[in-house]
Amino acid sequence: MPTLSHRERVLAALAHRETDRVPIDFGGTYTTTIYDSAYDRLKRNLGLEHPTVVYSKTRRLAIPHQSVLDRFEVDTRFLGLGPYEGDQREIDADTYLDEWGTTWRKAQDGHYLYVDGPFFNLKKPSLDLLEDRHWPDPDNPGYYRDLGERARAARATGRAVILNLPIGVVHQGQFLRGFGDWLKDLYKNRAFSERTMDMVADRWIAVATKALDLCAGNVDIVFFGDDLASQLAPLFDPEMYRALVKPRHRRMIAAVKAKADVKLLYHSCGAVSRLIDDLADIGVDAINPVQVTAADMNPEGLKSRFGNRVAFWGGINTQETLPFGTPDQVRAEVRRVIDILGADGGYVLNSVHNIQDDVPTENILAMFDEARAYRRTPGA
Asked: What is the number of domains present in the chain?
């Protein structure tokens, strides 16, 4: 098979075609990268010296440098919006208020958790509260600062360019309302829940369409995330997803695809298999992170049931193999997952979610080096 360019390799895999090797993503999205502390160790191991650029303070996620992308022959390139200007601030060294009015606080392990929001602990908020709030402006210049220029630079690398868009209606609703109360609103305060999701979706679409205009055709993939499942099952009845959330997701994805010829990469952690057909139905082209240790998420079952409808992006076990396995076990797992999910294309390799601080550098090297070297036998 002829050698493909980085961009060709990713797009061929998303079109369910065999490729010369499996495409590799590292740092193309804010759920397929690495925590800053692990990245600093990786740099030292590779003998590379450059500042660690982080996606945001609260996420502590590194954006890999070009030298690292070259070392691992990574096929993707991150493109993100800039920070919102105004309406957000540091309350103290460990506490942050975002533009939506959600407060984030640093936990002992260094992660930031949302601890308060505009509608936290309200028994049954009214629609008037939604209309009376000052919400983020989708035209805020901070989002789009140098975006067109950065998109052109990303395209010039020859890699598949991934435009990272804001979180969706599920996550943003939870950050405004609180996780438990947001779930209860779906059943007990449906009008408020639906209006909240519409408000978030309207702003998301406005941001997405303006960003794609500015990128002027230099984007291959649009990415966003909205977790729909826990380790064991969907977060709510799939029929509730179909009635309330799916129509908003459909509208968001349709707006993106009407604006640009791009693939849609969707992130949801957990046991999401019962919703994959729904996601494919509304235009999702690839599912991330493929949490293989979650219920009903084994690679063989996913590939046989959904492999003709969606591509898979992720799949290398970050709960067990990467943090606790040996480099040889990591290499064996990489070959196993490529053989299953990469059959007839339809697979981009990455860890299941971001590489955490507990993953040894040797295992990171084993994962990406094996992915570069391994050649699956077509048709096997």
From this structure: 1
In a domain, 327, yes or no: yes
Contact yes or no for 370/335 (Cβ under 8 A): yes
For 216-237, the pLDDT digits (tens) are 999 999 999 999 999 999 999 9
Helix (H) or strand (E) segment spanning residue 14: helix 6-14
With respect to residue 134, please indicate whether it lies within any of the assigned structural domains: no
- From residue 149, how far is each of 153, 205, 213, 256 by CA, in Å? 6, 21, 12, 20
Amino acid letter, 145: R
Q: How many CB atoms lie within 10 A of CB 114?
A: 20
Under-50 pLDDT residues of the chain: none
CATH, residue 281: 3.20.20.210
Print the SS3 string covering 112-173. EEEEECCCCCCCCCCHHHHHHCCCCCCCCHHHHCCHHHHHHHHHHCCCEEEEECCCCHHHHH
Q: Which helix (H) or strand (E) holds 95?
A: strand 95-97
The kind and range of the H/E element at 79 are: strand 76-80
